Prior knowledge:
The complex is a heterodimer of chains A (290) and B (380).
Chain A: H1 2-32, H2 39-57, H3 60-81, H4 89-111, E1 127-129, E2 132-135, H5 137-159, H6 161-171, H7 173-178, H8 183-205, H9 218-231, H10 236-257, H11 262-276
Antiparallel strand pairs in A: 1-2
Helix pairs in contact in A: 1-5, 1-8, 1-9, 1-10, 2-3, 2-4, 2-8, 3-8, 5-6, 6-8, 9-10, 9-11
Chain B: H1 11-28, H2 34-60, H3 67-84, H4 90-116, H5 121-141, E1 151-152, H6 168-192, H7 194-204, H8 206-211, H9 216-242, E2 244-245, H10 252-265, H11 270-293, H12 298-323, H13 327-341, H14 362-370
Antiparallel strand pairs in B: 1-2
Helix pairs in contact in B: 1-6, 2-6, 2-9, 2-10, 2-11, 3-4, 3-9, 4-9, 6-9, 7-9, 10-11, 10-12, 10-13, 11-12
Amino acid sequence: xxxxxxxxxxxxxxxxxxxxxxxxxxxxxxxxxxxxxxxxxxxxxxxxxxxxxxxxxxxxxxxxxxxxxxxxxxxxxxxxxxxxxxxxxxxxxxxxxxxxxxxxxxxxxxxxxxxxxxxxxxxxxxxxxxxxxxxxxxxxxxxxxxxxxxxxxxxxxxxxxxxxxxxxxxxxxxxxxxxxxxxxxxxxxxxxxxxxxxxxxxxxxxxxxxxxxxxxxxxxxxxxxxxxxxxxxxxxxxxxxxxxxxxxxxxxxxxxxxxxxxxxxxxxxxxxxxxxxxxxxxxxxxxxxx
Amino acid sequence: xxxxxxxxxxxxxxxxxxxxxxxxxxxxxxxxxxxxxxxxxxxxxxxxxxxxxxxxxxxxxxxxxxxxxxxxxxxxxxxxxxxxxxxxxxxxxxxxxxxxxxxxxxxxxxxxxxxxxxxxxxxxxxxxxxxxxxxxxxxxxxxxxxxxxxxxxxxxxxxxxxxxxxxxxxxxxxxxxxxxxxxxxxxxxxxxxxxxxxxxxxxxxxxxxxxxxxxxxxxxxxxxxxxxxxxxxxxxxxxxxxxxxxxxxxxxxxxxxxxxxxxxxxxxxxxxxxxxxxxxxxxxxxxxxxxxxxxxxxxxxxxxxxxxxxxxxxxxxxxxxxxxxxxxxxxxxxxxxxxxxxxxxxxxxxxxxxxxxxxxxxxxxxxxxxxxxxxxxxxx
Lengths: 290, 380
C-alpha cells in the first residue's frame, strides 16, 4: 500500500508535466492543424540553453527563464522559417521530422551524446507521513508550476482580447480575417506560446530522468502524444485529465512491472484508444448523431 | 522502347521488365568488388522497405514513421524461422524464412493498419512512432528475441555449383537483387492495377470513393499490410546479408532515413524509392569517408560520424518539402512532361510509370488527402 501511494504521488507529479507538454501539442494543433512532431527536439534544444545558463549563473531559476525564452524564440523561428511551408498535414509531419533530424544531429555534434546530469532546484527526497513516503518538494514544485501555468493559459485564452483572437483564428480563420484579426500572426503567437510551454515541461521533467542528452525527450514526446490523443487533440482540459491518468498508469507500470515495460504500455494504450475511441476521451460531440 | 517489350502495359510487361532489370543488376555484380557488392545488397534490402513506404504514403496517403520496426519484424521472422530449420536444405530454409518474415511483418502491419485505418495522418504517424520507440522494450521483454543482443541467423553459403564462380558477397547481392525484384514487380502490378486505382481514390476523397463502392477502411488496411510485408522482406534480406538482427539497428534514425528516402525520390514513385535507397546507403558511408579523411580531433570525428549524415538528410528533407515536394523523380518527370507537351499534339505515352503527371501526380494531390483532417469521423 505504501508503495502504491508513493507511485500514485510521483505519477501525479509526472502526469502534470506530461499534461503540460501535451498542452503544447494541443495549442499548436488547434492553431495550425499540425501535430508538432518536432516538439520534443525543440524542447531539448531549449533545455540545453537552460542547463548552460544554469551552470554559468549557478541558479536553476535563471536557467529555467533562459530555457523558456529560448523555447519561445525557437518556436517563432520554426513557425516563420519552416512550418509555414506546410500546406498539408502530411507535409507538416514530414517537415517536423526533418527538423527533428536537424536539431538532434546538430546537438549531437555540438554537445556530444553523453548525459549531462541535471540537479533539481529543490530537494527531491520524498516527505513521509506516518512512515509513508508520498511525494517530494520537487514534486510539489512541479505540480504547482504546471497547474499554475495551465490556469494562466486558461485565463489568457478566455479573458483577454489576445485569447479571443487566438481562439477565433483557430476556429474560423477566414471569418476572423474579415473581422480584422491577423490570423497568421496569431498562429505565430500560438507556436511561440506552445514552444515555451514545452520547454518548461521538458525542464521540469529532466531532474527526474537520467539527464540531458540529444534524445532525452524522445520518450517524453511519445508519452505526450499519447496523452494528447487520449484526451482529444482539441481539448486542453482533456490533456490535463489524460496527463494525470497516463502519468499514474506509467508510474504504476514502472513500479510494479519494471521500467522496461513503460514504452510497451504506452503503445498498448495508444492502440487501444485509437481502436475504441479515436476522437479522445474528453472530446465533445462534433456533429449531430441522429 | 524496343520491340522486345510487350507493347501494352500490364502483367507480362512488368514481368519482362523486372526480369531484365534483375538480370542487368546481377550482371553488374561482376564489375564490383566484394565491398561494393555488399553495399549493393544493402541497397536492395532498403529498396524493399522504401518501395513499400512510398506506395503507402504516396498512394494511400498514410504516413508511417515505423517502417524500421516493420523491417525489424521481418528480420526477426527470418532469423526465427531460419534458426528453427537447421537441417532443411538451404533453398527450403531460405524460402521458409522469407515466408516467416512476411507473415510476422504482415501481422504487425495488420494490427497497425486496423488501428490506423479510421485515422488520418498525424495519428497514424504518432502510433507508428511509438512502435519504433517501444521496439527495444519489446525485444527485451518478449522471450526468444534475444534482448539488446538481438538474434543471429546462420550464414547461407554459396551453393557448391557456383562456389568457383562467385564470392560470398556477390552471391548475397544476387539473392538480395532477386528478392527485391520480386517485391518491386509485385508492388508495380498492384499499383498499376485495380487496387492502385482504389487506393488513389481513397487518398484523394474518401467520401467519393465510398460512394463509388470502394471501402476506404479496407483499402487503407490492405495498403498498410502490403507495405509492411515489403518492409519485412527488406528486413529479411538485411538479416540474410548481415546474419543478425538487433533492435539497435532499427531505431528511430533508420525509420526517419526511410522517410527521407521516399520524400527525396518522390512520394508514390518506385523509381524514386530506388534513388532514395541508394542515397540512404551511400550518403552515410560517403560522409563517414570524408570525415575520416579530414584532419579533425578524434572526439569531434566521433561526434560527426553518425550525426553529420543525419544533419544532411534532415536539411535535405526540409528544403525539399519546402521547395520541391514532388521529389527528384517527380520534378524531373514534370519537367519532361512539360517539354514533351510543348511541340505538337499530345503524344501517347504507353509506358508511363504509376504516378503519371496529371491530376494524380503525387505531391500536391496529398492536399486532398490531408485536408479533411478536421473531421476525423469518416463514414465508418
